[in-house]
Specification:
- The chain is α/β, with parallel strands linked by helices.
- It has a single domain (6-383), classed as Alkaline Phosphatase, subunit A (3-Layer(aba) Sandwich), CATH 3.40.720.10.
- It is 31% helix and 15% strand.
- Strands 4-3-6-1-8-9-2-10 form an eight-stranded mixed sheet, with helices on both faces. Strands 11-12-13-14 form a four-stranded antiparallel sheet, covered by helices on one side.
- β11 (394-399) and β12 (408-413) form a beta hairpin.
- α7 (172-192) packs parallel to α11 (263-293).
- The longest helix has 31 residues, at 263-293.
- The radius of gyration is 23 Å and the shape is globular.
- The two termini are 23 Å apart.
- 49% of the residues are buried.
């Protein structure tokens, strides 16, 4: 009998930790996340390593900072040769299954997964490649080169979605998440009913949803859950506060400065975002309920996280693409087999820590014949209720994708966050005293030593000028390749799920209509 735990990895898209009840938000309704948190371990200060879908997921899967892979934007390829923790789990005997989104770009749409039950919701090619030079200063979102059909759609500002928040009858995102959810539930059932040689094979199942990603809409049922419920509005800036150039870039790219959302727009966007968060929370509850019904809870580790967050109007900003807290903080809740219950870990952590953590949980170490430098550290001791004096208590958050036009890198260490924007003024925030990041302390004599120390640490081994050159070179290469591939006959990289009907239900090879032990 295999004693290694099964792993159910549940992932949201664009879910800020600060928009969930386990992280102190009393406006949102997330009872299933709260139940999981009460019975497991909550990492209170978990960060994405890049506040953008593809880079964040690539960093998480490889245990490397996105710039070290590199995957710096939503249209950069994760190399097939990059080892992921899924490769390691599969190589060690785990059955590995993906249902839902992982935003892989390139011909490899598996990256270690043995089975993939759905295609991805977003394109797998280079169509979204936009060069920093073409975006302008401040950057504006425009149609990708060579894609004339998209020009009209890209003329519409992203921030227009803030004005259109509300209930909907259905959406393509519901199509996607219902398919994702059905596949995940079916997988749990099939895994629980296995017999023969593979009965005790441990499994890793990733159920990855697209909610609560914008637009800020959801079904009437979820919109109505917030009827009459107080929803706190974003904080007003202190007198005299001026946005950093980094904030100006992001808002320009999203078109916030052109749409100018009203207070009513802000309220409705937050209500819509919370409605979609509750939708995701229900999916978590149903997965946990099915695990329990199938008798799989005791030997399964359950992990819930997200690729990045959403600003939800804080600092006058929406969506992601900024290293500020609502955009960069993600939920990280772990419960189940071998995990201490009712525990909250205050130290800083990030998504790159999940690679060594999951290997540790599975009793593995990185294979010496596959040298793979990791930027993360194992969280497994915390899961066992232990503390570590050697824990670095830090997280690196980068931003070199769309909506910036220069390398951005932040270091969160202890109570401080230092932000470097190439060619722009530095930023330092005391997240204990100023969690909303209003007061830049770089010019405060009392914090000069802290700022110098964190800047030196952040720049150690990282050359921002070189990063700038390499990011631009990659953008131009991919833009060229994209234009070439759009000429003539186009061959898609999008994943095509397949079903083998010859091995479903009652068939010649296994003419079994009823098995009282398995319910088949």
């Amino acid at each position: 009998m295999n004693t290694r735990p099964n792993i159910l990895f549940i992932m949201a898209d664009q879910l800020s930790a600060l928009a969930t009840t386990p992280y102190g938000n009393r406006d949102v309704l997330t009872p299933h996340l709260q139940q999981l948190a009460d019975g497991g371990t909550v990492f209170e200060r978990a960060y994405t390593n890049m506040p953008l879908c593809a880079p964040a997921r690539a960093a998480m899967l490889t245990g490397m900072l996105a710039s070290n892979i590199p995957v710096n934007d939503n249209s950069e390829e994760l190399p097939a040769s990059a080892p992921t923790f899924v490769h390691y789990l599969r190589r060690s005997g785990y059955k590995t299954i993906l249902s839902g989104k992982m935003h892989f770009v390139g011909p490899d749409q598996l990256h270690g997964f043995e089975e993939r039950l759905t295609t991805d919701i977003y394109p797998s090619d280079f169509i979204w490649t936009k060069t920093w030079d073409a975006q302008g200063d401040p950057p504006r979102r425009g149609a990708p080169p060579g894609n004339a059909e998209a020009s009209a759609a890209y003329a519409r500002q992203m921030a227009q979605m803030v004005k259109e928040s509300g209930p909907v009858a259905w959406s393509y995102q519901h199509d996607y998440d219902e398919e994702t959810h059905f596949g995940a539930l079916q997988s749990l059932r099939h895994l629980a009913r296995r017999r023969g040689a593979d009965k005790d094979q441990p499994w890793f199942l990733c159920a990855s949803y697209t909610h609560p990603h914008d637009p800020y809409v959801n079904l009437q049922e979820y919109w109505d859950r917030y009827d009459g419920r107080d929803i706190a509005m974003p904080e007003d800036p202190p007198p005299g506060w001026q946005p950093h150039r980094m904030d100006v870039w992001t808002n320009s790219y999203h078109g916030v400065d052109q749409v100018n959302p009203t207070p009513e727009d802000v309220y409705r966007s937050r209500r819509g975002y919370y409605a979609s968060t509750s939708y995701f929370d229900d999916k978590v509850g149903e997965l946990l309920g099915e695990l329990e019904r199938l008798g799989q809870l005791d030997n399964t580790l359950v992990l819930v996280t997200a690729d990045h967050g959403d600003m939800c109007g804080e600092h006058g900003m929406w969506f992601k693409r900024t290293v500020r807290e609502w955009s960069s903080r993600v939920p990280l809740i772990v419960a189940g087999a071998g995990v201490a219950a009712g525990q909250r870990v205050a130290q800083n952590a990030s998504l790159v820590d999940l690679f060594p953590t999951l290997l540790d949980v599975a009793g593995l170490t990185p294979a010496p014949e596959f040298p793979h430098p990791l930027d993360g550290h194992s969280l497994a001791p915390f899961l066992r209720g232990q503390q570590s004096s050697e824990w670095p208590d830090s997280a690196v958050v980068e931003n070199m994708g769309e909506a910036t036009i220069a390398p951005v890198r932040a270091l969160v260490q202890g109570r401080y966050k230092f932000v470097y924007v190439h060619g722009q003024p530095d930023q330092l925030y005391d997240l204990h005293e100023d969690p909303s990041e209003w007061r830049n302390l770089t010019d405060d004599p009392a914090h000069r030593e802290v700022a110098q120390r964190l800047k030196a640490q952040l720049l150690d081994g990282w050359d921002p000028a070189r990063a700038d050159r390499e990011v631009r070179q990659s953008q131009y290469r991919r833009a060229f390749v994209n234009e070439a591939l759009l000429a003539g006959k186009y061959t898609t990289w999008d994943y095509q799920p397949s079903t083998d009907a010859a091995h479903q239900y009652v068939r010649r090879a296994s003419n079994r209509q009823w098995d009282p032990d398995l319910g088949t």
